Give the backbone structure.
Amino acid sequence: MDALAGVKTIKDFPIPQRMKAWVLGDPGELTLTDKPVPSPKRAEVLVRIDAAAICATDLEVIYQGPPGLIQGGLPFNKNFTPGHEYMGTVVALGPGVDEYSIGQRVACEIHAGCGQCKRCREGMYTSCHNYGLNYGEHDKGHRANGFTTDGAFCEYQVNNINTLVAIRHDMSDEEGALVVTAGTAMYALTELGGLVAGESVVVSGAGPIGLMVVAVAKALGAQPVILTEMRDDRMKIARQLGADFTVNVGQVADAVAAVKALNGGKGVDYVVECSAASRAVNDAVHMVNRGGKVCLAAFTHEPALVDIAHIVSNNIYVYGIRGEGKSAVHRAEAFMRQKRFDATKVHTHTFPLADLPTAIRYAKDRVDDAIKVVVKPRLEAARKVAAE
Ligand SMILES: [Zn+2]
Ligand SMILES: [Zn+2]
């Protein structure tokens, strides 16, 4: 690291000049290269990445491009390092930073936002109006590591202090990498949704986000929490995380009727759609009761057919969610600190950073029933030391 003036480091955490970093070439093409270790600026720290999880949105960025946005365009062949779900250890403090100390373990949110637009001022920094404007004459200071700035499939990254959440010393790296995922579930249910204890929730689709929504909904006191899903192993994990009922949508003739039957025939207060299945949105608006809310948390690639008249005549709210916001991640971490649910049930595989392509294949093709797959830079280092 070529430290900028005023940057603090300590000798217990020596920082190299260069680091290993994966770089995105053409769609789907990742190359392990090396890059300079970046130096933190004002209100930033340097984080040594201890664990980075692979998310379905990483696959979107690596294979399709959006929501990756680098220098106003697609993220391909721009020396861009993807990866956005990670945790690590603070190893250098930017000028004036005293909110965190070197050696502190932190979960890292993705979006720093520009801090000056209407949405950032409202705490909705994932909807920043200056998204991706961080280059040349368009530099508004926006950062979303792994989307609009370099991300976590490397050894070190700079983070604005507004993206950090301190984690307990005894929380594993893998669990730490899931804090922000749980924060997304929290944001969907409370900050954006307004859920209060005792309300009923359906989660459709048991990917990592869906499973975290089940866990957080139950921890918030939702009743009942119902998961709709097709895979038995995922339904079992959802029950361990607090689902009161699971509905196998591959085995029932009518998923909407099955859900309604479990909640007094009226449908539920909330559906959080995490499956991206083509009929899931229309099913969701029929699973909520009159005045209920539907949160859309999955990327669908095709436009969905939805019964708008049903939404209008029943006063149903439909809203999308991007990432997290309004400090929801801090509240999710507080639940995990109290061990209100065991997020590690969602983690299935860990690989060294050098094996990122294998890790991505496990996540993408669900090899060996993979759910959340993590890569660790220091796992590789530990093995090398052991071999010497
Ligand atoms: Zn993600
Ligand atoms: Zn903004």
Summary: The first helix runs from residue 56 to 63. The pocket of zinc ion (ligand 1) is lined by residues 55, 57, 84-85 (CB under 6 Å). The mean pLDDT is 95.
